[in-house]
Design goal:
Length: 328
């Protein structure tokens, strides 16, 4: 009996490799998507290049001391951004201190304690706050928030904490406190939405294990759920901070716009975004305009760094080192 030689059979090429690049429409579609994906980074670098080029005269003239100099004199052509940087960071940090407990409480309630019929309506209403224009927040702050602070909040704060430098002086209305409170209200929906997604992504086994060991429902949330998602919750807070740093109209209308550094929350302050909005149309000299561009460059760098840090934390959660949602 004769045995025929067996020819080796070539492995079949995977279908996706055989079809890759075979269709002109597919190649065009892939090229278009690649171009669109590269557009945003290119726009980011173009914006950065324009800011650096426009701010270069002020950077060359004032140097690094521009960051800690307090003089802002357009007539003499002397500029320093220290009060603006201080006001931006102070208002944002105070807003974050006010917003994080409220937003985290809302997120915990919606994910752990709220009835099912109430979760979606409340979540929708909270997220709807992000759709309100900032100028509307500013008008509401002028006619509602400031009178409320003047009549109810500030007297109590001064009675309890008036001995500290943080609540010293006369409260006229437009102040660092008013600007910080309106910022806190504006960033609550962002922090609450991301925190809710993080808590929803916590495995049910975490809750069940805590309850099985005798913990109450609240103890299970505070000792098992929240620590499991702490990286994502921290990222949500920093994302809210990045949102607060760049806010313009509402803060401009409420913070007082005084180029000065003071520890008291009851006194007016200034932010970088408010300075650009108020003074850009009035910049009549090249060095004045360049100084405002440098302020914008500083704000750009700070905001990008803060948002990048927040995204890194959320991505860390999404990869599974802590907890998170791929949708983030």
């Amino acid at each position: 009996m004769t045995t025929l030689p067996i020819e080796p059979v070539a492995a079949a090429e995977p279908r996706w490799q055989a079809l890759r690049g075979a269709n002109a429409g597919d190649r065009l579609y892939r090229a278009a998507l690649t171009a669109l994906a590269l557009t945003l980074p290119l726009l980011l670098f173009a914006l950065l290049a324009e800011l650096v080029a426009s701010a270069w005269p002020a950077m060359r003239r004032f140097g690094v001391p521009f960051l800690w100099t307090s003089v802002w004199d357009p007539v003499a052509g002397v500029f320093g951004a220290a009060p603006m940087i201080f006001g931006t960071l102070a208002s944002s940090l105070v807003a974050l201190a006010l917003a994080v407990p409220l937003a985290l409480g809302v997120a915990i309630y919606l994910t752990e304690f709220a009835p099912k019929w109430l979760r979606q309506p409340v979540a929708f209403l909270v997220e709807l706050l992000a759709a309100i224009p900032s100028v509307v927040y500013g008008l509401w702050g002028i006619y509602v928030l400031i009178p409320f602070l003047r009549g109810h909040v500030v007297p109590a704060l001064r009675a309890a904490l008036g001995w500290t430098p943080f609540f010293d002086g006369v409260f006229y209305g437009n102040s660092l406190l008013a600007g910080s409170v309106i910022l806190a209200i504006m960033i609550v929906p962002y922090i609450a939405a991301v925190s809710r997604e993080v808590l929803l992504a916590v495995p049910a086994s975490q809750r069940e294990a805590a309850v099985g060991m005798g913990a109450t429902r609240w103890e299970a949330v505070w000792t098992a759920v929240v620590p499991y998602g702490r990286a994502g919750l921290l990222g949500a807070g920093i994302l809210g901070l990045g949102r607060a740093l760049g806010e313009t109209m509402a803060v401009t209308m409420l913070i007082g716009n005084r180029h000065d550094i003071g520890l008291s929350l009851l006194q007016p302050a200034y932010t970088m975004a408010a300075a650009i909005a108020n003074e850009f149309s009035e910049a009549t000299t090249d060095i004045y305009l360049s100084a405002l561009f440098e302020v914008g460059l500083i704000l750009f760098v700070v905001t990008v760094v803060v948002n990048a840090l927040a995204r890194l934390l959320i991505w860390r959660v999404a990869r599974g080192t802590a907890v998170g949602s791929r949708a983030l």
